Amino acid sequence: MGLLKTPRFRGQFVVRLDEKGRLRIPTKLRETLQQNFTDGLILAAGPRRLDAYPPEIWEVLEEKILAKAGLHEDYRALIRYYIASGVESEIDKHGRILIPTVHRERAKIQQEVLVVGSLDHIEIWDMNQWRDHDKWAENNFERLTKEAFS
Question: Which H or E element spans position 37?
Answer without folding.
Answer: none
